[in-house]
Amino acid sequence: MSKHSQNAISVYAPASMGNVGVGFDLLGAALAPIDGSLLGDKVSISAIATGVEFEQVGPWAHKLPTELTENIVYQCAEFFLDKLQTNTGVKLVLQKNLPVGSGLGSSASSVVAALYALNEHFDKPFDEQALLLLMGEFEGKISGSVHYDNVAPCYLGGMQLMLNTQDKVCAAIPSFKEWYWVVAYPGISLSTAKMRALLPEQYDKGVAIDFGRYLSAFVHASYQQDSKMAIEVLKDVMAEPYRAAAIPGYLDAREALTQLGMLTTGISGSGPTLFSVTDSLEKAQQAKEWLEQHYLTEQGGFAHVCQLDEQGTRRV
């Protein structure tokens, strides 16, 4: 039997923006509201004799399957125990703070928090890279294909570029410390699969070239810390043109945010959450207020002024 910690451990995994507009499936960033509130799921773990016990609480727990064995955190525990080949048991409690289908990496947050907690509890049998691969493998089971653009930043923090080379899943790229990322979730849920289905099967050669140019220029500008260039190329040619109209109120909001003087606006993940960037705290607060009045349509909608969460997943 492997060693495990006797005391309950609690782990927090931040919300994340997949794509970050310019980097479809290849860029992701973790979010931290500047007011110090935690925007992400928490998982706590403790030892029991055998098997898996599971409980779900929190503001969005009612949107999860009522059959506990269908919950991804429960499945994470089975998956992990199977990998470890251990017969010792665990009890997991998920505090579901992120809405499902929001474009904020909700399933990634649950998966990453659960696998991180399990790894801590069993005294870190997996190193960082191995654990990241497990997270990707598991998240792939859920969504049907392996994407790291939410999992990687959620786990490691900051802004992560997907490399998918033989030795490295991803690498952190420098971020702009002076930027504020205003994110707004309107309160409706959009299925990632449905939003993916809106994208064309094939892209025009010109679009492919623009995509490569904008993403490489954005990475270059990040390393040069050239904020003006980074904003100029932070454009989404892959997904936004096909998804924008399917997100209620998005086009109006983008227009209004431009009028307010925000530097650029995009879709977080596959939506309906949007992000808008500025280097002025005053403008960020104005944008948040505008979004709260005009973009949030359903109960449970919210807006936050964020910076990037450089810490990633951690014990709390």
TL;DR?
This is Homoserine kinase. The protein has 316 residues and is an alpha+beta fold.
Describe what this molecule looks like in 3D.
InterPro entries: GHMP_kinase_C_dom (IPR013750), GHMP_kinase_C_sf (IPR036554), GHMP_kinase_N_dom (IPR006204), GHMP_knse_ATP-bd_CS (IPR006203), Homoserine_kinase (IPR000870), Ribosomal_Su5_D2-typ_SF (IPR020568), Ribsml_uS5_D2-typ_fold_subgr (IPR014721). Belongs to the GHMP kinase family. Homoserine kinase subfamily. It comes from Shewanella gaetbuli. This protein is α+β, with helices and mostly antiparallel strands. The protein has 10 helices and 13 strands. Strands 2, 3, 7, 8, 9, 10, 11 and 12 form an 8-stranded antiparallel sheet that branches. Strands 5-6-4-1-13 form a 5-stranded mixed sheet, with helices on one face. The mean pLDDT is 94.
Q: What share of the residues lie within helices?
A: 25-40%
The DSSP helix count reads 10
The count of domains is: 2
Task: Give me the Rg, rounded.
Answer: 19 Å
CATH classification class of the largest domain: Alpha Beta
How would you sum up the global shape? globular
- Terminal CA distance reads 27 Å
Structural class by sheet pairing and helices: alpha+beta
- Give the H and E element order: EEEEEHEHHHEEEHHHHHEEHEE
Instruction: Fill in the CATH topology of the largest domain.
Output: Ribosomal Protein S5, domain 2
- Based on the coordinates given, report the CATH architecture of the largest domain: 2-Layer Sandwich
Largest sheet: 8 strands, antiparallel
Low-confidence sequence ranges: none
Average pLDDT score: 94
- Give the number of DSSP strands: 13
Kindly estimate the percentage of residues that lie in beta strands according to DSSP: 15-25%
